[in-house]
Amino acid sequence: xxxxxxxxxxxxxxxxxxxxxxxxxxxxxxxxxxxxxxxxxxxxxxxxxxxxxxxxxxxxxxxxxxxxxxxxxxxxxxxxxxxxxxxxxxxxxxxxxxxxxxxxxxxxxxxxxxxxxxxxxxxxxxxxxxxxxxxxxxxxxxxxxxxxxxxxxxxxxxxxxxxxxxxxxxxxxxxxxxxxxxxxxxxxxxxxxxxxxxxxxxxxxxxxxxxxxxxxxxxxxxxxxxxxxxxxxxxxxxxxxxxxxxxxxxxxxxxxxxxxxxxxxxxxxxxxxxxxxxxxxxxxxxxxxxxxxxxxxxxxxxxxxxxxxxxxxxxxxxxxxxxxxxxxxxxxxxxxxxxxxxxxxxxxxxxxxxxxxxxxxxxxxxxxxxxxxxxxxxxxxxxxxxxxxxxxxxxxxxxxxxxxxxxxxxxxxxxxxxxxxxxxxxxxxxxxxxxxxxxxxxxxxxxxxxxxxxxxxxxx
Amino acid sequence: xxxxxxxxxxxxxxxxxxxxxxxxxxxxxxxxxxxxxxxxxxxxxxxxxxxxxxxxxxxxxxxxxxxxxxxxxxxxxxxxxxxxxxxxxxxxxxxxxxxxxxxxxxxxxxxxxxxxxxxxxxxxxxxxxxxxxxxxxxxxxxxxxxxxxxxxxxxxxxxxxxxxxxxxxxxxxxxxxxxxxxxxxxxxxxxxxxxxxxxxxxxxxxxxxxxxxxxxxxxxxxxxxxxxxxxxxxxxxxxxxxxxxxxxxxxxxxxxxxxxxxxxxxxxxxxxxxxxxxxxxxxxxxxxxxxxxxxxxxxxxxxxxxxxxxxxxxxxxxxxxxxxxxxxxxxxxxxxxxxxxxxxxxxxxxxxxxxxxxxxxxxxxxxxxxxxxxxxxxxxxxxxxxxxxxxxxxxxxxxxxxxxxxxxxxxxxxxxxxxxxxxxxxxxxxxxxxxxxxxxxxxxxxxxxxxxxxxxxxxx
Lengths: 460, 460
Known about the structure:
2 copies of one chain form a homodimer. Chain A is α+β, with helices and mostly antiparallel strands. Chain A folds into 2 domains: 274 residues, 2-Layer Sandwich (BirA Bifunctional Protein, domain 2); 89 residues, 3-Layer(aba) Sandwich (Rossmann fold). Chain A has 18 helices and 16 strands. In chain A, the strands form 3 sheets. In chain A, strands 1-5-6-11-10-9-7-8 form an 8-stranded mixed beta sheet. Chain A has a 5-stranded mixed beta sheet with strand order 13-12-14-15-16, with helices on both faces.
């Protein structure tokens, strides 16, 4: 047997118990709110056919797909000549499956496959890991969870307002109050493209201004110049993007600036309508900010786009989404519009840890540890464990007959609030000795009284 | 844009809402019981280094690993000569990661990596998918969930009794009463090997008799003969395995038969002790059956082994496990014994569906659908949705202004028990019309009364 130094692949993580409890708190909060809004659960496999995955995330996204080697002799259909052509040509001959890159494309694939059984509009949520062969760095992993909510089969802007309401409610429940939900519309970006004299370059424009926060105006300008934008059009672009004020002020200024553009005018009208709906739907304040410079990288968005940022946290966005009018058509189902949002649970976690927003978690750990005095008392200890569990308590038993001190120390390290000590005297008198680990206080009483004591004296 | 017929890889599945609700019911039941026994949650990545995965599952298992192609130019370190040597030689040069095959080996890897932070004995549960490039067939998938509970760092047989108790409690809660928990001990199999004159062939013996139920005695005999067992030893083997009666009868007969074998005697003593513990720990009856022919395929088991079967269901086992004394030593942590159990949730699901053990699920779907009368009433409808959600109801709004009949039909298809109709009259009178979808009955009242009606009249 060869001993090896154990390691996990870079960009992946183990989640030990302390982290799991906190992650589950976030996931449960998100899940409950998704359910309260009528989204239904869906899960799709980690594995997808390469043909489903490629072509939806842009060239850069395709590069980041994890590919699975075909099983068995993957070289059986490969010629020498294939290998001479390099790895890109070889790839489709040795791999036909990959790991999913997001939850939206598999969702579109599911909808297209099950179109006859689905009642539209179809609202689903999906909480699963996705994989990207990205360069791991602070807050960016190769395997991470997404939490998506989408509705497909309705063009109504009420769906967008629902998403605003959803985001607001979830973040409020998690205690994250100092956030901004940025919104824009791809038609407004198309309008800006028209207005600056580059109507056919909206895709390039989106990719460039998506980097604005990261690399700054100067570098974006240079990138746009390299892509054929004139200096005049770039100047005009930043004049438009610099428009400031309240949402209503920005909307009315842009309405003037883009009044000659049909898509621009339509996009602004849509944003106005979404805000009006949200004003009547969101519980409490909503922190939506119209931001004409928001672009989002993904190529499949066609309408409203969203992004959530937490103020004063250098962590990028904690979620994003948008409307896609044509995602299912690549799977043979045209004319079905959808809109959705995705939380990045890892970044939500990091923000909550930094801002100390996690409540104290106690109940997930055992309420009481039953210790074993010596070999003669084991059977009695097991019977006590059985009775305590019958009454619904979360109980563990220390399995080895080691010194009591070591057993108490184990309870202490695991933050178990109570320990039951059960020696020959206690057994003879039909009593249990209960030690409160926080106070050190010990009392002896019968089993039912012990259960009551544990249930009533939950350490805070 | 090229239209493609959407499909998922063979052996994988989508879980739509109706299935998800049932799966979650099973997973939540298992999870809660694991927690009540003091197991703590753990998750490990889907991706593991190939070096961690290989060598633990036998040759056959290694063949079934899904391997991930290295990112970027995976041919950069490959010579022409490597390719001539065939795919097995090429494999390690183009792939250094794979998908996990079970949850036990990654758990052992985690324990070895975190040995200094872990409080032993360490009890963890883990509910995650695993992947096997197996030939898909009825009840066997390439991507499926395992639900594991393990304790590591104690040799106490109380741990085995806890697992018996755990299995019993979970299956009782799920309503699966007609099951058998088969148990054996690898030392008893070693004893049988000794007794039949093949002490060095216990591993071969395990692999062969593991197939007994599937392929029958004759084929197993032929396999053993081919592996060098004498006809005498095979005859003797089946004499021993045919011993029948109650657990105590089989134990005492085998004690006679294996009395000359040290491991055999020790294994029988261990089983006896585990049963004595379980008698005092399990709530209600326990359905443990000592079965000397139970072998389990996996090579890392060294002590007690478990397998759960449901009677009269031709579905194989719904779970299994055992003790492993040396699993962490390949990761540099010797001398740490562990024991665990794993439920196969897909098979549990199939059994429950066949036996109609699922309760009716209602609460996961919306309690009420708010309809939209026309464009002039949208804002009012949104306000009603907001108020209902504030009061904790699960509410969805039909987003489009289509005919009321179509909206009612949507509620009917989704089994939403109530619909709110909100026309100009209702708005003028500050009333809501509530339609009970089961009875067709309609009433009009104010919002608070409506909430009370919905909460009190949950259709059964």
